[in-house]
Amino acid sequence: MKKKGAIELSIGTIVIIVLAMSMLILGLVLVKNIFSGASSNILQMNDKVKDQINMLFVEDQKTVVYLPNQKAEIKQNEDWGIAFAIKNLQGGTIEAGRFSYDTIVSDPDVRKKCGVSEKDVESWIKTGRSDQTTITPGQTYYGIVRFFIPEGAPLCTVRFHLEVKRDNQPYDTAFFDIEVIA
Fold this sequence. Notes:
Layout: H1 2-56, E1 63-65, E2 71-75, E3 78-87, E4 97-105, H2 110-114, H3 118-122, E5 125-127, E6 130-135, E7 140-149, E8 157-166, E9 169-181
Parallel strand pairs: 2-9
Antiparallel strand pairs: 1-3, 3-7, 4-6, 4-8, 5-7, 8-9
């Protein structure tokens, strides 16, 4: 009798282990499918945004900001990204140019109309305030400036400029407005 009980316990344990491993494998396959589907959707959206930005370029336009009416309405306590592109239109050369950009507040009366300083408004920029890159002639650089509007930020509109330089010389400037809404 002791041997029969020991065998039954061993078979039950083996069945439980096999079922647990099967569930683990099925769970891993499900998680892999979910993440691969999500990442392909993100790549597809990224490509579509790039296509939309490319449609904004006209023949002689060097920098574009992807916003309807150059205005973003951002709620307090919210993250927001503003996409832009810089195109190297330097003709007659095959050398790549060293480009840099800076995102700055370009609203001299921001203190009067919003009650905050330019430095406070610039602190809303989370990432992408400035960067440098090399762009070959005819190619385009895509970037994002990410903003986080803190709770308690004044409800007003502030103008920003994206100042672009090529080899430390002014190249182009684009503007956009941020309207803080409740």
